[in-house]
Amino acid sequence: MNQSSQLLTVAVFFILLLCGCDQKKINSHEIIHLENITDNFVTVNLSEFTDSIEYIKLETNDQSLISKVINVDIRESLILIQDNEDNCILYNENGKFLSRIGKKGNGPGEYQWLNQGKIGRQVVYVLSLNKILTYNFKGEFLQEINIPYQISAAWLNNSFFPTSDTTFLLQVPFHIEGNQLAELNSDGSVIKKYFREKSETIRLGTLDTEANIYIHEGKLSYKCLLNDTLFRIHNTSISPVYTFDYGKYSLPEINFKSVEEYISLSRPSIMLKSFIETTNYFFLTLALGANYPKEYVNERKINNEVINVGYLWLGVYNKKDKSIRLSKPSGYKDELNYTGIYNDLDGGLSVIPRQRIDDSSFVTFFYPYELKSYTSSAEFRNKKVKNQEMKDRLLELSKSLSFDDNPVLMKVKLKK
After folding, report:
1. Per the CB 3.0–4.6 Å rule, which of 243, 270, 348, 406 could disulfide with 58?
2. What is the CA angle 161-216-49, rounded to 5?
3. Whole-prediction pTM value?
4. What span, in angstroms and rounded, lies between the C-alpha atoms of 73 and 140?
5. How far is CA 64 from CA 68, 219, 354, 410, in A?
6. Radius of gyration, CA atoms only, the chain
7. β-sheet bridge partners, residue 56
8. Residue partners of 308: CB distance under 8 A and separation at least 6
9. Is the model's pLDDT at 336 over the cut of 70?
10. pLDDT tens digits along 61-104
11. Is residue 238 within 8 Å of 252, Cβ to Cβ?
12. Bridge partners of residue 364, in order along the sequence
C-alpha cells in the first residue's frame, strides 16, 4: 500500500469514527414510545406516588372571586391564580388572600390581555400581548417591558419564564430565523438566542403552540407541547434529552391551511396537551384523537357529522423502569374529568396533576361543587381507603364549603 492509500485509509477511518460519535450523540437521549399506550389502561393509585397530600382552601371575598382556573403558579410561600376572566390573584401558602395583581384595561399599569402570570423572587410578572408587566406583591404596578417586534407575537403561545429578577425566556413564535427561544433583559433587549435543533421534527401547526419552560434538577428545560423533543438549555445551546415517539399516531409534518384541514389531519393523532416532569416520572395529559377505547367515547353531531369525542387522559411514564400506563377511568361518571390517578388515600376525586411545584411535588385543584357532589355520593361512602382519618378530614372540608366558594388546591408531595 503506497503512502497516498495509507493516508486515505486513515482519513476514512477518522471520518467514520466522527460519524459514529455524532450518531452516538444523536441517539444518546431517551426515546419515550407512545404508539402502544392505548393498550395499557390500568388503575393507577395515588398511594403509589405519595402518602402526603395537603388541601388549601382559597379565601373567598369580593376581591378574590375566581371563575375557571387557567393557571396556577406556586413559589415558596406564595400562590398565584389566573382565571378565565383575566383575574390574577395572589394568596399566601395557607390560601389567605393577599392582593389582586393589576387589572384589565388600557390605562397605565393595566393589562389588555392576561396571557400568563409568574411569581418572581420579589415581584409578579404578567405577560400581556407584546409586553411584560411587573407588580409588587401588593399588586401595585412597577414596570412595563416591551417585547421586541421580532418576537412580539410571543404572547400567542403563552410561553415565558423569568430566569432571574431581570431576565426572561420566551418561546419565539414561528421560530423566526430558526430561533427557538430568546432571552430578554429588563430593557426588552434580546441578550441570548437559542436555535432550533435541525434534528427536531416540526409537526403540524406547532410553531406557535404553547411550550413548557421550567427548571428541572437545576437546569432550564423546554418543550413545545406538540413537537417531539424535550430539551435542556445550557448557555446558548439546546440539548435534546427526551423524544416522545408517537409512531403512526404522530402529527403530520406540515402546517395546516384551515381549521377543517387541521381537524382532518390531526384526528388520527395523539397529542400531548400538557405534562409535568418530576424526578422519577412524567405525568402526561393526552388527547387520544380517534384512538379512544369505544367504551369511553361520547358521540356528538358537529356540522351534520357525527364526531366521537373523548376525554383527556392521564399517562404516567416511569423514568426508572421505562414503563408507561394510561390511567383507567374511575366509575364516577359525573366528574368533569373522570380520568386521573385513583385516590385511594382519602377517597377523594381522581387526581390530574395540573402544575409542577418543583421536582418532587405538583398541585391540582377541585371546585367546591365537584367535592360536595362527590363526597355525598355512594361511591365515596363505600370507597376503601388507605387512611380513614384522611377521608374523614376530606368530608369535613367538603361540608365547610359553599357551592360558590373559590376552588380548593391539593398539593401532592411525591415519595423519593
Report:
1. 406
2. 120
3. 0.86
4. 19
5. 13, 34, 21, 19
6. 24
7. 409
8. 290, 292, 297, 298, 299
9. no
10. 999 999 999 999 999 999 999 999 999 999 999 999 999 999 99
11. no
12. 410
